[in-house]
Amino acid sequence: LVFSSCGSVLVMLLSLIPTQRSITWGRQFKTNTVRSFAQQGTPNSVPDVNAITKPLPPKEGLDWDSMSFALTPTNYMFVAETSKGQEFPKGELRPWGPLPLYPAATIINYGQGIFEGLKAFRTSKGVVVFRPFENWKRMNDGADAFLMSRIPRAVFEQGVQSIVRANSEFIPPENRGALYLRPVLFGSGAALGVAPSNSYTFAIYATPVGSYFKGGKITPISLLVAASHHRAAPKGAGHVKAAGNYAPCFQAQKAAKDAGYNEALFVDAKHEKYLEEAGASNIFIVGKDGTIATPGLGTILPGVTRNSIIQLAKQKGYRIEERRVPLEEAMEASEAFCTGTGASLTPVGSITWGDKKVTFNDGQVGKVTQDLYTTLLDLQFQRSPDVNKWLYDPFGEPQEKL
Question: Taking the model in full, what pTM does it have?
Fold first, then answer.
């Protein structure tokens, strides 16, 4: 399932560390590090993104229909760097390649790193990015929590614009996927003491991802309650999209999949009876009276898709509640679904809790779930009016000046 792939950011960062042979520090960094990617066809120069005013057509030769939520390297990445206590300056495009890191970097030793996920969609009207400034706000909330330098809105916007414009040929055709953008912010300075880093790196890379549900038909997933594992604790960092929040869940997710389920369902650590998250996604239930309920904020991630579904549901006239949701209540619901950037909105077909199992709507997609799924995708692909002004044009004039 797509949710667990979000937890690979720390592994990804480690995999980007260049070898002794490929790295040259200082002014020669760009040229030398690109050579190891020459066989992938990575360019040795970067385009002037200000001169790019419209997207390129989809790249020929890519099998868009076979793509999943997996890494397909694109041509360019965006990088900005700063020192502790300093604001991030204007960043730059670089050819896709390794990022230099000392083995004593704070991200490697102490996990001082956060990430985001957002998507750019190709539509019949052009290309749009879904709610990028909500990701900017959440990333800065995480930066504050981990004592890292905040990212100015103009720099975040520059990164989003640059990465989409420079890699526009990797945006899948309409209705066949999206360009997934992964901003990362981490302590890149070398230190031995347990303390915040003395320098920070903000980067964005991009990869095309396929439609999670092929052919437009959504399929329910199965969840197994993780009875022996807690995802987050009160007063902890469960609300931060931190790299270190995901690897501790791998064992519970693997156990669920080994047992034949799609994902693990986590409950709260204090009472062990209230819903938290499903894999790396937010969860909703639909009561028999049609009321939609989702866990309130605190120890869970304040998902951008979660927030979007809450607002869209209210606008469509649904009653929706953000509160503690007992697992017993979920087992008696008429529908359930998960939300996240990876799969947008995913129906839950069943939940297994010990020796109890409940199947929702005879294993079929419920009416409320289908309605909200269609509403969200119609908005993202510009098939319905953007009344909330959530869609951002990466080829238009910047909203913020550098």
Answer: 0.88
